[in-house]
Every structure is written in structure tokens, then in C-alpha cells.
Write a structure and sequence with these properties.
Layout lengths: L5 E9 L3 H9 L4 H4 L3 E8 L2 E7 L5 E12 L4 E8 L1 E11 L22 E11 L2 H5 L1 H32 L1
Antiparallel strand pairs: 1-7, 2-3, 3-4, 4-5, 5-6, 6-7
């Protein structure tokens, strides 16, 4: 196992229509409004920018994002990452008509009225670009993974609240 290679996968179930979830995820500039660990977004181009991330562990990451795929029909948003993390990250938003069992990112029964809601599949394949993170990868690998899990749970909760507030008016 390469301690500097991370693959993440999680599912968020949200009580909001696919179009609303996709639009919120596509609007990276709004992430600091609902995702506590995304501290700042700095646009660097029409389809690129830097995000400043700080989760529970006492370090911050500056990650450059560049759009690779934006496909509303398929519900796919994918970016290439560079900087303190390098690799790719992808959200795939699809209808969730059942609201099935809990996944790593969502509560059972998270669907909206009539059972309609969204299922968000998050996938990421990354390596740290920051030298300190590479050096600490072996002893702190489990802690880095736990830190990411907390960040993703808080992102799901924040997005759910943001979508509910937006829908309420």
C-alpha cells in the first residue's frame, strides 16, 4: 500500500431535486457558505480556481481545481486537482427515489416529499503535493482518512441545510 495514495468514495442522500443539488455543487464559489472546511475560493479562470481547505487537523491545504467534465444530463461534475493535493475529484448526482440504507454520507430516509430526492456519489483519487503531508503519510494515514471523513460528513450536512434554506425562500 502506498501511504501517499488516497482513494475516497462516499454517498450523500439529500432531500432535494437533482437539479438543485447539481446547481449547488457546480457553484464552487458558494461552497464556503455551506461547507465549513472550505474556507475560501479564489477564481483563477473561467473554469478554474483555488480552494482553501482546513478541517480538524491543524493544517490548511490550497488546492487548485480545473474543470474536466461538466455534464448536467449525466449529473457529473469532475475536476483535476493540483497544488497541496494532486489528482481528481468527481460528484455524480442522480435521482434517489428510495432513500435506502445509510451510506457514509447520509441518513436513512433522506428523500424529500413523495420519496424524491438526490443521491450524490463522491469519488476522489489523490496524492498529497505538500511535502510535509508526504513525509507524515505513513504514521498519520489513518488520521488523514478520518479527517477527510469528518469533512465529508460536515459537507453533506451543510449542503442539506443550504438546499433546505434555498428551497424555503
Amino acid at each position: 500500500m502506498d501511504p501517499n495514495h488516497y482513494r475516497f468514495r462516499g454517498v450523500w442522500r439529500l432531500a432535494a431535486p437533482v437539479s438543485a443539488v447539481y446547481a449547488a455543487l457546480e457553484d464552487v464559489r458558494s461552497y464556503p457558505l455551506w461547507w465549513p472546511e472550505i474556507r475560501e475560493v479564489r477564481p483563477t479562470g473561467e473554469d478554474s480556481g483555488d480552494v482553501v481547505v482546513r478541517a480538524l487537523l491543524p493544517y490548511r491545504l490550497v488546492i487548485g481545481l480545473a474543470a474536466k467534465r461538466r455534464d448536467p444530463a449525466a449529473g457529473v461534475l469532475e475536476v483535476a486537482m493540483r497544488g497541496d493535493l494532486a489528482g481528481w475529484s468527481r460528484f455524480t448526482v442522480t435521482p434517489d427515489l428510495v432513500g435506502g440504507a445509510d451510506g457514509p454520507g447520509g441518513p436513512r430516509g433522506a428523500c424529500g416529499p413523495g420519496g424524491a430526492g438526490s443521491r450524490v456519489l463522491f469519488e476522489e483519487d489523490t496524492r498529497p503535493g505538500k511535502p510535509l503531508l508526504r513525509r507524515l503519510a505513513l504514521p498519520l494515514h489513518p488520521l488523514f482518512r478520518a479527517n477527510h471523513a469528518v469533512m465529508m460528513r460536515r459537507g453533506r450536512r451543510g449542503l442539506a441545510a443550504y438546499l433546505a434554506a434555498t428551497a424555503a425562500g
